[in-house]
Write a structure and sequence with these properties.
Layout (H helix, E strand, L loop, with lengths): L3 E8 L2 E8 L2 E7 L12 E10 L4 E5 L5 E5 L9 E6 L9 E4 L4 E2 L3 E4 L5 E3 L6 H14 L6 E4 L8 H19 L7 E4 L4 H8 L5 E3 L4 H4 L2 H8 L4 E2 L5 E6 L4 E6 L8 H20 L3 E6 L8 H13 L5 E6 L5 E5 L8 H7 L1
Parallel strand pairs: 1-14, 6-8, 11-12, 17-18
Antiparallel strand pairs: 1-2, 2-3, 4-5, 4-7, 4-13, 5-6, 7-8, 9-10, 10-12, 15-16, 16-17, 18-20, 19-20
Helix pairs in contact: 1-2, 6-7
Length: 348
């Protein structure tokens, strides 16, 4: 099965989406449970509660007695109403991370109320098309102090669709920002898995929405294989991903290959496979990789493979480097909810 295919279905009673590229499951999204954390992008009217000394942030009160944590919150006073947006998922028992920098994001456009200016994605390199999009943006954002970013998907999109996207996001931003005063309230729901797939996965060659397509098209089997305790690598080695409360531990095994280059080959394959392994599991936070033993002179090659592999990964990941003990560390944004017990049970 060649090309890009998107499958929209439900798992454990929740909306889920799968991206298959050339027959390989490359990404999987699932909506949080109803009693779980709020999806990323949810906007609230919150009330400032109390500052956290030494961390430069404050707790904010959300609807239903929930609490959020707002970083870089200088100049706010207790009892002040603020508009905040969720930026990720927190560990159980911790406050959800929030930001004052609201984003109204759609397939072609992102309206940025706190960051003025009109910008076109750098991935759009055709100067004529950039000029057309810039003219369209200036026309539709005339009279507004909001900023706008036109995403790479706008390059080949119909101008009418792009214009409608811009107008819708501007109108939504204006409506939300007009209601800053009042008690804590949810003002905008974050996107579920189906909406995220439409927004982030471009223009696929195939979209399957038939109920039960995850089972009939082999998505559940592919996901179960992809998140198994040990994922096989092409050269015979394996990569083991073990999430803990403190960090995500990754172990690389060179397998039964005992040649001089076995460790280097296994480590290169593991570096290429790591973004997918983390994506399918929805994992974020601190990542520590115990690569197969290799001399220091080969580390630069692993660094290059990792940078290339994560460059196209949709989740922001900072590659910190090597530790004195020879492990590699990275920090990955927690913008996805890890696969939970309900989903894992449904896969069995």
């Amino acid at each position: 099965m060649k090309g890009r295919s998107v499958f929209l279905d439900h798992i454990a009673g929740r909306a889920a989406a799968a991206l298959v590229i050339d027959g390989s499951l490359e990404d999987f999204l699932v909506t949080p449970p109803e009693d779980g954390p709020e999806p990323v992008g949810t906007i609230f009217r919150a009330v400032v509660d109390r500052p956290i000394k030494g961390q430069g942030g404050v707790f904010v009160r959300l609807p239903g007695g929930e609490t959020g944590f707002l970083r870089h919150a200088k100049g706010l006073s207790a009892g002040q109403p603020v508009l905040v947006q969720t930026t990720g998922f927190a560990d159980p028992g911790k406050a959800a991370p929030m930001t004052l920098k609201l984003l109204f994001k759609s397939k072609f456009a992102i309206v940025t109320p706190t960051a003025p200016g009109l910008n076109v994605s750098r991935q759009i390199r055709d100067e004529e098309r950039r000029a057309e999009l810039k003219f369209l943006a200036e026309d539709l954002m005339s009279g507004s102090d909001f900023g706008l970013i036109l995403r790479s998907e706008a390059e080949n999109a119909d101008e009418t669709d792009v214009a409608e996207d811009i107008a819708e996001m501007r109108s939504l931003a204006e409506a939300i920002l007009s209601g800053q005063d009042g008690d804590p309230e949810r003002l905008l729901d974050g996107a579920d898995a189906h909406a995220l797939a439409w927004r982030e996965w471009g223009q696929p060659d195939e979209i399957e929405t038939e109920p039960g397509c995850f089972e009939t098209r082999g998505i559940l089997d592919a996901l179960l294989e992809g998140i198994g305790s040990a994922t096989a690598l092409p050269g015979g080695g394996s990569i083991l991903v073990e999430p803990t409360r403190a960090m995500i531990a990754v172990d690389v095994n060179s397998g039964t290959d005992f040649s001089l280059a076995a460790a280097l080959k296994a480590n290169i394959e593991a570096a290429r496979a790591l973004p997918r392994a983390l994506r399918l599991r929805g994992l974020g936070g601190q990542v520590t990789v115990d690569f197969a033993p290799l001399p220091k002179k080969d580390r630069r090659q692993i660094d290059q493979v990792l940078r290339t592999a994560f460059r196209t990964d949709p989740v922001e990941t900072s590659l910190a480097g090597w530790t004195p003990l020879g492990n590699f560390e990275a920090q990955r944004k927690r913008e996805r909810l890890p696969l939970d017990a309900e989903v894992l049970k449904a896969l069995q």
